[in-house]
Amino acid sequence: MGNHSDWSPSRLKRIIECPGSVSLIKKLIRDGKIPEEGNPSEYAQHGTMLHEKFQLIASKNLTLDTANLELEDSAAVADCLEFYNNLMKSLGHGNFAHGLETEVSMEDWGLPEVFGTADVFIYDLTTQHMHVVDWKFGHTWVSPYKNPQLMAYAAGLISWPTPVKKITVYIGQPAHDNFEDYSFGIDDLYEWVHGTLAVAIGKSRRIQSEFNPGDEQCKWCEAATHCPAYIGHAQYKAIEAFKLDDLEIGDVTPEMILSLLDSEPLLKGIFKRFKDHIQNELESGRDFPGMKLVTGKANRKWKYSETAIAKWLAKYTEIDDIYRSKLVSPAQAEQLQRSLKKNDKFQKLFHKPKGKVSIARDTDSRPALPSASAAREAFDKFIDSEFT
C-alpha cells in the first residue's frame, strides 16, 4: 500500500479547505524548497511512541508496567486503555470484529489515493455499527464532529456493498480528558465521500487549483511559508487590524472585533512560521541576508550523578538545604494511583477553585457565565418576588 499519500486522511481537512495546497507542495518538493518527508518533530515522535505502547499493551493484553513510561505518559496510555476496554464491554456480547493499527484504503469508493492507518476499529456484527477511535496525544484540542480524518478511516474500513448502517467516530485525547464522539449513518458517509471529499480531490489535481487560505487549513501546511495566498491573507488581516486601531472604540462593531480576534492565531502563526523557516535555512547552511544564528541563554546542569553531587555539597551546607520537596497535586496523585479516581474519601481531600474568567466564542462547549446585566435582572426578580 505504500507509506506516503498526498491525500492521506490526516491531510484531508487541509485539502478540502484548500485544494491548491496539493500541487503547490508537490512543486516545492520538486524545486527542493521543502523536503519530501519532513523530519517528524519531537512532539510527533513522542505521539508515535505512545501509539505504539498502546498497541503493544492492548494487542498482547500486557500490564501497563511493562511499558516503562514516565508518569504522565503512563497515565495517558492508561486512560486510552480504559476507554478502549469500556467501549468493548459496552457492546454487551462477543459478536464483533476489531483491529488495532489497521491499514485502510478508500479504493472501494473509487479513491485509492486515500489510505492510512486506523488506530482502533470495532465492528458490532449484531447491530451493524462501526466504531472508529483515533488517539491524539498532543495538546491542541481536536473535535470528532465531521472530522475528515476520522470519516476517511471509517470509509476505508468499509467495502461495498456493505451491511454497515451506523458509524461512530471517537477522539481519544487524554491531555484534555477529551473522549468525545460523533455518529452518522452510512448514507451520510456516502454523501460526504462523493459530495465533499471526491470533489476536493478532483480540484486538487487541476494544474490551476484554487487556494483558500485560513488559520485551520494553513496551520500544518508544509507550503505555508512559500504560499502567496497565505502571505497575502495574513497581510490583509494585518491591514484590517491597523484600520481598527485608528477607529474610536465606539465605532467598532462586535462583528469587526470578532473577525479580528478570529485572525489572531493566523497573525501569530505566520511570524512563528517565518522564524522557523529562517532558522531551518540557516541551520541547513544556506544564507539568509540580515539574519544569523546565535546561542540563547542556558541554565547550568550538574555533570555528575545526583548522589555524587549531594555528597560534595554536604561538606558545605546542611542536607535539608540541598533537597527541596513539594506535595503532589490531586491530578498527580491520581496518576500515581489510578484507583483514587473512584475513591470517595480522596475526593473530599481537595476542591476545584473557579477558573479565571475569560472570553470565548458562543460556539465553545463551556457554559456561559451570567453577564452583569443578567445578574442584575435575576436579583431584581428575586427582590420583587420576596417583598411584593
Number of E strands: 5
Mean pLDDT: 86
**Do you know the CATH topology of one domain?**
Lambda Exonuclease, Chain A
Q: How much β-strand is present in the residues?
A: 5-15%
Structural class by SSE content: alpha+beta
The stretches of 5 or more residues where confidence is low (pLDDT under 50) are none
Keywords:
45% helix; 5-stranded mixed sheet; 15 helices; globular; alpha+beta; 388 residues; 11% strand; single chain; Lambda Exonuclease, Chain A
Report on the structure:
The chain is globular. The chain has a five-stranded mixed beta sheet, sandwiched between helices. It is α+β, with helices and mostly antiparallel strands and 388 residues long. The chain contains 15 helices and five strands. Among the domains are: 9-204, Lambda Exonuclease, Chain A, CATH 3.90.320; 215-283.
Task: Lay out the secondary structure.
Blueprint: H1 12-17, H2 20-30, H3 42-60, H4 71-90, E1 96-106, E2 111-124, E3 129-135, H5 148-156, E4 166-172, E5 181-185, H6 186-204, H7 215-218, H8 228-245, H9 254-262, H10 264-283, H11 306-313, H12 319-322, H13 330-336, H14 344-347, H15 372-387
Parallel strand pairs: 3-4
Antiparallel strand pairs: 1-2, 2-3, 4-5
Quick gist of this model?
45% of the residues lie in helices and 11% in strands.
